[in-house]
Amino acid sequence: MYRDPVEERRVRAHYFVLAAHAVEGPRLLLLSANERFPNGLANSSDQVGRNLMDHPVLLSYALADEPVYPLRAPLSTAGVEQFRDGEFRAARSGMRIEIGNDGWNWPVGAPPQFVRMLVTKGFRGDALKRELNRQVTRQFRLAALLEQLPDPENRVTLDPVFKDSLGLPRPRLTYAVDGYAKQGRAAAMELHDRIFHAFGTSSTTHVPGFQGAGHIMGTTRMGTNPRTSVVDPNLRSHDHPNLFILGSGAFPTGACSNPTLTIAALALRCVPVLARALEQG
Description:
The chain has five helices and eleven strands. The protein has helices at residues 21-31, 111-120, 125-136, 179-199, 260-279, and strands spanning 2-3, 8-9, 16-18, 57-64, 76-80, 95-100, 139-146, 155-163, 169-174, 201-206, 243-245. Helix 2 packs across helix 3. The strands form four sheets. The chain has a five-stranded antiparallel sheet with strand order 5-6-7-4-10, covered by helices on one side. Strands 1-2 form a two-stranded antiparallel ribbon. A two-stranded parallel ribbon has the order 3-11. It is an alpha+beta fold. 31% of the residues are buried. It folds into two domains: 2-53 and 216-279, FAD/NAD(P)-binding domain (3-Layer(bba) Sandwich), CATH 3.50.50; 57-149 and 178-206, no CATH class.
């Protein structure tokens, strides 16, 4: 049964696939609590909504000594990948460093916003045009995507006060970055400084705190033990054999790389299992 803006409706099926990502997915499962499943669907382990992860980002930018001509290619075409793994991971997170092609768009704003900054500094007319070209062509940006450990207290729950347009509880997010990632941030800052120095830059800025990568993971974690996970290695709910939960919510850990290809790979691994189940009726 589900609710739309007009009425409640009911759908019957042999199998269900939930693919609503790592926030709305657990929210729907928690909203489905009833007398038989008081903690929500697929949640006998109490793991639905837990272990919310992102890739906390250290964002840094500088002005190159020579033009590098950003804004002429995709967001990023290169990165520094060799810091993902090593003995250091016993004490701090791994990372990948993205070399941006978007100038200072992320930390400062696109060129129109940058124009306003120059205007406030007194630039006008031809002088504004020259200074804009001089600076924008030399804008250089790095972003270190850090590994975050799963923490059951970082989670999605149902908000007891705020409702959506259907009158249903909105998701409430509890999220913090632990010391493991903070130690990784300190190491990333040193690496960014070394890269900027080797490249030849000035006016280096490290944005305070962490930026979000938007790589939302965890909350319906995968595992072989039904007491500590939500889905099995084929993304099938431990509690409901006719329910498959797809997406990055299944990630038991997040590493430090973009999750899209892994999401696709897990979905493809689920397909033959679901196909066989459908064939068997």
